[in-house]
Design goal:
Blueprint lengths: L8 E8 L9 E2 L11 E2 L2 E3 L6 H13 L3 E13 L9 E12 L2 H13 L2
Length: 118
Amino acid sequence: MKAGIDYIGVAVGVFIINKKNQIFLTKRGQQATNERGTWEIPGGKVNFGETLQFAAKREIKEETGLQIYGIKFVCFHEFIYGKAFWKRRHFIFFDFDDAWSETKSFLLKAIAVANTAK
């Protein structure tokens, strides 16, 4: 059974924003299920038994190497059979805001690299 196909998938994302109000984005890889090569906030699926907050922190660590602290809930949105997926999918996304990441200088460098990739 697969999340989003056989049952509703649950995912998290984190808005990581620096003091200049720049948002840290990650680029989806070629192995991604959908929207390959597009930019998004980092995050991913919630594993069975995880809290949303734990999943958000785990996903950020896995995807970026950053250890985040003090996240707060921002919003949720539903994705029901959207065109972005090439198969019928149903997900609920919970988004958080991180005010205190391990290193803001890392984010500034990453944003600078992302800006040059445009």
